[in-house]
Design goal:
Number of strands: 9
Helix content: 25-40%
Number of helices: 4
Shape: globular
Largest sheet: 9 strands, antiparallel
Strand order of the largest sheet: 2-1-9-8-7-6-5-4-3
Radius of gyration: 21 Å
Structural class: alpha+beta
Distance between the termini: 68 Å
Order of helices and strands: HHEEHHEEEEEEE
Strand content: 35-45%
Length: 176
């Protein structure tokens, strides 16, 4: 009896590993690969290690600091997390293209990423802008993420938590 259970468990483990590898190998992306693009940018910026003038503004009070980033992965994580190629979001975006700008928009209430727009000059990306809108009974926030390769990134957030004062903050990093 124990031998049969062991064989069954081994077979299940073998087939589950095979299915996972097939899922990982599938690289058909329906939309622009935000995660892949920013993973490459993080790696490139980590090697380049540029000086950044970073300004943080919370409800009108700003503070600036010039330094080198210890972790570009942490700094750009919000961009990576805005990936629109999630399996549960398949068919959730409408793609349009006009004058060198491709846009992906969603009006699905379950998808927080509402718009991604990529502006190109030929094949070179000039600008990426992402709009994120999160809402529930207690919380509402709107994020605008903007990225200009080799020059600037910006994160603007407006949030309102029920029974608390609204909060606006922005983070701007200018690469030198």
């Amino acid at each position: 009896m124990i031998k049969k259970i062991s064989i069954l468990l081994f077979a299940l483990a073998f087939f589950s590993c095979k299915q996972r590898k097939e899922a990982e190998a599938k690289t058909d992306l329906q939309y622009f690969d935000i995660k892949g693009y920013f993973d490459k940018e993080i790696s490139r910026l980590q090697k380049l290690n540029p000086v950044v003038n970073k300004t943080v503004n919370v409800n009108g009070t700003a503070e600036s600091k010039t330094s080198k980033m210890a972790s570009w992965a942490k700094e750009l994580a919000i961009f990576v997390n805005a990936d629109i190629n999630k399996a549960s979001w398949k068919e959730g975006f409408k793609a349009t293209q006009l004058d060198g700008t491709e846009a992906y928009t969603s009006d699905n209430k379950k998808i927080p990423v509402k718009k991604v727009s990529i502006t190109r000059n030929g094949s070179e990306i000039q600008k990426i802008e992402i709009l994120i809108d999160n809402k529930n009974i207690l919380y509402q926030s709107q994020d605008t993420l903007t990225y200009f390769p080799d020059s600037l990134y910006s994160i603007r957030k407006h949030q309102k938590i029920r029974l608390l004062k609204e909060k606006k903050y922005s983070i701007t990093g200018k690469l030198k």
